[in-house]
């Protein structure tokens, strides 16, 4: 979608980082970050430039202490960061093409989330556009500003009819059973999914009746409008029995007037995140094609003509996770984010296939919008800087941007006068010679002549990547005297597909060696107390924690959070059937790998006090997995405890008070088995 763009003078020189507030310059930081300050934490997200470039709209997530939840508010500011003001509650905000309105999602009538439109004039009138019974998502304005596209779950009804006799008058019969017929019938944070499919709708921006564009028993992704507003591009898999097709999706285009749906891609693998070019002549999308369906494949950036012809990759040999596609306004190519070696930066690929880095640095930078004259806005974080909105000018040379204009400072009040932990990057050699990246978080005022307890923090996935973004949990652990080591062992993303596939059909395995080599590297520096080593992790990190205590007794205590303990029982309990592909053969053909890689099979070796912590509502690594390990440890007389976190799905910390509990239970468990005196914690 093309825009006329007039940038305010303040954004013509986007090179210097915003100075810190005077309060932080007045004296050296002295105080420690405390856990209770998490309740004052905020998170800046999703900035967008107005079409004329004069304003930035963004969201701020904050803790509602009274209701124990995160809330999201809408904010707007001038393009130079001045005159920031709150507009109200809401999320998923989008500027209209003419910049006169915004669309967003917030609760309304009859109940639950609805689509709203606000006029951005002095009056600021708002209108509830929809009156839906299901929650909308993925808002998209039509180029003429007359319609809004969105996705929404559409309930279905089973066609299994039985002739029940009529209940006697006044009888109280048991509710009819839930009938499941799909392979994938539930999803973490959603629940049972057999009764709905996600479809695409359009609704007049002035309000009216939503019109369903897609149909059938298929799920459909977020849509993208063509320049003329007549077509919507999306991804799906509209084929018979799609749930038995592993890692495949197709890009389609649906005509908003006739309802015609065309399949546009024919290549293998997953084809996702399609977006039309501003002139409507091309579509950019991501494709990940794994020749071996059990292997990991990094997505490549592709473009094709709007009718699906001439599809070709334009990201060259880039072998890194990509996301956040944004077309250049002149249709010359596509901007995108790429994760690499613990950082996330912005890149550009021309339609001819030339790839260059737009930014560089040890940071996590997520760009959300780029103007017609090359001004970009996004959120940026570093080990000592939490997420804030930043802006910069796209360079006209190949020299990447390394400095940014900071437009917000949403946590400066919390961090004022606080001495933060220092984070040191390290590279070390694993047992077989593979190079592994990690980071050491050291307490403020670190003294290398002293001996510190060490926490090994293991990420989940396992195909994911720890990064250099600010992390409150690690800062809290460091403020309580711990050195924290976090690493990206083999199997992590951000180092190429070969590195990620090092654990193919062998998880856990050599990633254990990578973690132990990291611990040894830090121990060899001389400032770690070898009697006070601790380990924890959630999800994939919980798997490896449980594996570690079955293979070594070097840790004083461990916490395995939301783990997989038994691969054979797990594949039938989890929310997705894709985990049956985790090993080369299904267990009914050959159970050997399932047994060999299950931590429960090594419980007889465990001597380490091991706590388990899992969400009661978890459908990804359900509670029975933790209960299996807990009971086996109890039978063997190993010190253990099972913390059942109420209100939590996968993970233990999505609810603010549960984040506090997760940190305190972890600290309490480690303190209990530490050789140093235990610290006092608040009891419940």
Written overview of the protein:
The chain is mainly β and 684 residues long. The protein has a domain at 422-672: Rossmann fold, CATH 3.40.50.1820. It has ten helices and 38 strands. Strands 31-32-34-33-35-36-37-38 form an eight-stranded mixed β-sheet, sandwiched between helices. Strand 9 (136-141) and strand 10 form a beta hairpin. The longest helix has 17 residues, at 656-672. The N and C termini lie far apart (55 Å). The model is unreliable at 1-26 and 677-682 (pLDDT under 50).
Poorly predicted sequence stretches spanning 5 or more consecutive residues: 1-26, 677-682
CATH superfamily of one domain: Alpha/Beta hydrolase fold, catalytic domain
Number of helices: 10
Q: What fraction strand? A: 25-35%
Helix content: 10-25%
- Biggest sheet architecture: 8 strands, mixed
Secondary-structure map:
Layout lengths: L21 H5 L15 E8 L5 E10 L4 E10 L6 E5 L1 E5 L5 E7 L5 E7 L6 E3 L7 E6 L5 E9 L30 E2 L3 E2 L3 E9 L6 E2 L11 E2 L5 E6 L13 E6 L5 E3 L6 E7 L5 E7 L11 E6 L6 E2 L8 E6 L5 E8 L2 E8 L4 E3 L6 E7 L4 E8 L2 E9 L11 E2 L5 H4 L6 E8 L5 E8 L9 E7 L13 H8 L3 E6 L8 H4 L9 H14 L4 E11 L1 H10 L7 E5 L5 H7 L18 H5 L13 E6 L7 H13 L4 E6 L10 H17 L12
Parallel strand pairs: 33-34, 33-35, 35-36, 36-37, 37-38
Antiparallel strand pairs: 1-2, 2-3, 3-4, 5-6, 6-7, 7-8, 9-10, 10-13, 11-12, 13-14, 15-16, 16-17, 17-18, 19-20, 20-21, 21-22, 23-24, 24-25, 25-26, 27-28, 28-29, 29-30, 31-32, 32-34
Q: Could you name the key traits of this structure?
A:
single chain; 684 residues; mainly beta; Rossmann fold; eight-stranded mixed β-sheet; four-stranded antiparallel β-sheet; 38 strands; globular; disordered C terminus
